[in-house]
Amino acid sequence: MKNWEKKDFVVGLRRRGLSYREIKGEVPFTLSKSTISSWCKDIELTARQKNRLELIFKDGSYRGRLAGSKTTQIRRAKEVAGIREQAKSEISSLTENEFKLAGLMLYWAEGAKSRYVDITNSDPALIKFMTDWLRLICGVPEERFRACLHLHSGQNEKQIKAYWSKLTNIPIEQFSKSYIKQEGSGYRKNILYKGTIKIRVCDSNLLHKILGWIEGIKYNQLVSI
């Protein structure tokens, strides 16, 4: 059983109102209570289910534990928000060289290393960053951009294609045929809302230039240690 199938099984049991202990006893595989908790933490039980669990605990502490857990979650959420806001304030506008280096780091991690300049991702902010980077840093002309969507069956291809076209400023005419993952092919059912997009520039010289920049980063990082 794949990990996502295990999670779906556990979530289904929780939605039926089972306690974490009961779930642990029901699953036909080894699973820690902490994993069950992380998978089910966002599931809101009904009043009837909560009353049942309160009776199971006998000491009447379930509601108190639940309230305490929610309080802890809220406190942690505020703490995380503060950390992120502080970290965000530490980043100022990027210089052209910083923008170049940031794009190279992303390409180094996410980009294709052979044949074409390819960047594939489902994060709209990352895709927007990289299409801007290809235009501004690499000087890619508009007509050289190509895009391809990877979707799941049941998604609205026309609507999603329009979304990515607007985000990237790549005309729909420059999108190739979308790849549709059919149900039952082993892919997860909790699909990505906007799918995954591949941005491609068919320019081997540009690819080698980008890879050369990355080699330069490797070299200069090593010699400075």
Explain how this protein is built.
The protein has 225 residues and is of the alpha+beta class. It has 2 domains: 3-89; 96-223, 60s Ribosomal Protein L30, Chain: A (2-Layer Sandwich), CATH 3.30.1330. Helices cover 56% and strands 10% of the residues. The chain is built from 9 helices and 4 strands; from the N terminus they run H-H-H-H-H-H-E-H-E-H-E-E-H. It has helices at 3-15, 20-26, 33-40, 47-57, 62-89, 96-110, 124-136, 157-168, 204-223; strands at 117-121, 145-152, 179-181, 196-201. A 4-stranded mixed beta sheet has the order 1-4-2-3. Helix 6 crosses helix 7 and helix 6 crosses helix 9 (204-223). The longest helix is centred in the middle third of the chain and has 28 residues, at 62-89. The mean pLDDT is 88.
- CATH architecture of the largest domain, by name, is 2-Layer Sandwich
N-to-C terminal Cα separation, in Å?
46 Å
Structural class by sheet pairing and helices: alpha+beta
Broad CATH class of the largest domain = Alpha Beta
Radius of gyration: 24 Å
In terms of DSSP E residues, the strand content is 5-15%
Mean pLDDT: 88
Shape: elongated
Tally of alpha and pi helices: 9
- Which sequence of strands runs across the widest sheet? 1-4-2-3
* Residue runs with pLDDT of under 50 for 5 or more positions: none
Largest β-sheet summary = 4 strands, mixed
Report the CATH topology name of the largest domain: 60s Ribosomal Protein L30, Chain: A
Helix content: 55-70%
- Assembly type: single chain
Number of domains: 2
**Annotation, overall tally of beta strands:** 4
The succession of helices and strands, N to C, reads HHHHHHEHEHEEH
